[in-house]
């Protein structure tokens, strides 16, 4: 069985004319992992994310990383929050950092600091920068206290590349305009959850099952406040999907489905279902 890598994914939220939206990027189709799909910014945990220089610059982690909630090891739990913030900056240009006055850093003011941070973002995306050094050099602190633990997905066991991923919600600072990085992604846009799902069903965009499930759940909230409030301290279960191949049928079973333990898809009559089924190239919930 392929071992998993810890990873973090962030759903950055905003409201426009009373409509809840989430920022999504389109992965470059030339990439081997999720190429061409619309995803949320995210990536694997790096050693620098839980090293002392990074942890010393963080505030608010005690409000999110309760003992054992994100990870059994405290430093790695805080590192997942740092990874979430770093990936959000690299892939969406949203920086969860505060200046000495306590306000969110302004990336839209065309100041020298904003230009330096934009250049630092490009270096980080190219793998030549150090996130902690960037923050320290600008006198900023990384505020992860606004992140909300939203979901916990583990890649199915049969996959060759596996991640143990924590999903987070966060409100995007108003003084920062989200943009895709143009390194791993070819587009970025704010989408209402229902709009993204409708575009998927119309075959206008590609989505993968964890993204579909996340959009489904997010669509139940009408405001950013409501979404964030729902995930302040609730229990987040681990979700290890089971991919089942049987003849012409392809299904993904989730905990709670009557067939999850056996891993064998039976006729659905009278069963408790928690699954996605691949129908005509699209994932559908029966």
Summary of the model, kept short:
The protein is of the alpha+beta class.
Describe the structure.
- The model has no long low-confidence stretch (mean pLDDT about 90).
- Strands 1, 2, 3, 4, 8, 9, 10 and 11 form an 8-stranded mixed sheet that branches. A 4-stranded antiparallel sheet has the order 12-13-14-15, with no helix packed on it. A 3-stranded mixed sheet has the order 5-7-6, with no helix packed on it.
- It has helices at about 50-55, 75-90, 110-125, 130-135, 195-200, 210-220, 225-230, and strands spanning about 5-15, 20-25, 40, 40-45, 60, 95-100, 140-145, 150-155, 160-170, 185-190, 240, 240-245, 250-255, 275-280, 280-285.
- Helix content is about 25%, strand content about 25%.
- The two termini are about 30 Å apart.
- The chain has 7 helices and 15 strands.
Structural class determined from secondary elements: alpha+beta
CATH architecture of the largest domain: Alpha-Beta Complex
Number of strands: 15
Report the mean per-residue pLDDT as an integer: 91
The whole-angstrom Rg is 19 Å
Instruction: Quickly name the level 1 CATH class of the largest domain.
Output: Alpha Beta
| Structure annotation, total helices | 7
What distance separates the N and C termini?
Answer: 30 Å
- What is the domain tally? 2
CATH superfamily of the largest domain: Nucleoside Triphosphate Pyrophosphohydrolase
Would you identify the regions where 5 or more consecutive residues have pLDDT less than 50? Answer: none
The arrangement of helices and strands along the chain is: EEEEHEHEHHEEEEHHHEEEEE
Assembly state (oligomeric): single chain
CATH fold topology of the largest domain: Nucleoside Triphosphate Pyrophosphohydrolase
Task: Note the beta-strand portion.
Answer: 25-35%
Kindly state the percentage of residues in helix.
Answer: 10-25%
Q: Describe the sheet with the most strands.
A: 8 strands, mixed
Spatial shape: globular
